[in-house]
């Protein structure tokens, strides 16, 4: 392995820069040349490739987003587009490719590996929806961003004696809502993995009001959706002023937490080792506190298990 490249694809996540830094510096230490690819698979097809050195990744570990930029690419979904990408890598003399992103990005890496490109995927997504790894890069930071927001919303919710419904990201995975909800002391946590009864929710709010509780904080995962509609329904049913707040892309930004920086560094380091060992179509993750690598296809086939015990605990503590 003489020369590798790295790209970031799909949605950005805090900690991506820490992973880029780890890949670049590990490879250079092992006498491997590193190339950066701007704008994901789109940039790969267009040949937006440049040489990286240790200085290229100086002062980025604390920055959110991705210095390599990211983009969606419809052309890469075609066989012709993927062949073009593989040819570009060949022209630049690139032996291996590190792909930092989510499940869609990983499928792209797998398809490139079928064209003779050695690939390794790093889990960069705030959603924490990749079952093969306990944590994805960016999840912890996003959860803390939500926590900071709901701490502030609780202040104004208390002052106005209202119900606050906060919609958070995560696609069809409720991990951000569940973890931030527990940490923020939410009265209710609504996730796509569990059915909820809006009438029971309203009953709980009214019951709390009778006991002297003058505000309520509800965390709603975007996979369930409809924060505005739910707020209107709750207000109509209870007669209590109810506001919806959709946090949106604020959850993707910001300086990554120490946890995400260390996780990204460990996984980036491991990715280079995997390529050096001559293995391809792999993904790197963390299980039982240890860094592991698996076949991409096998990893994506693992069914995601919702943490029932954590959800049960959240219900009790609320």
Automatic annotation (TrEMBL):
Pathway: Carbohydrate degradation; glycolysis; D-glyceraldehyde 3-phosphate and glycerone phosphate from D-glucose: step 3/4
Alphabetically ordered keywords of this record: Allosteric enzyme, ATP-binding, Cytoplasm, Glycolysis, Kinase, Magnesium, Metal-binding, Nucleotide-binding, Transferase
Domain Phosphofructokinase stretches: 3-275
Binding positions for substrate per the UniProt entry: 125-127, 162, 169-171, 222, 243, 249-252
Sites where the protein binds Mg(2+): 103
Cofactor entry: Mg(2+)
Gene Ontology cellular-component terms listed: 6-phosphofructokinase complex
Record InterPro entries: ATP_PFK (IPR022953), ATP_PFK_prok-type (IPR012003), PFKA_ATP_prok (IPR012828), Phosphofructokinase_CS (IPR015912), Phosphofructokinase_dom (IPR000023), PKF_sf (IPR035966)
GO MF, one example: monosaccharide binding
PANTHER family for this protein: ATP-DEPENDENT 6-PHOSPHOFRUCTOKINASE, PHOSPHOFRUCTOKINASE
Family: Belongs to the phosphofructokinase type A (PFKA) family. ATP-dependent PFK group I subfamily. Prokaryotic clade 'B1' sub-subfamily.
Name the UniProt record assigns to this protein: ATP-dependent 6-phosphofructokinase
UniProt organism field: Clostridium putrefaciens
Gene label: pfkA
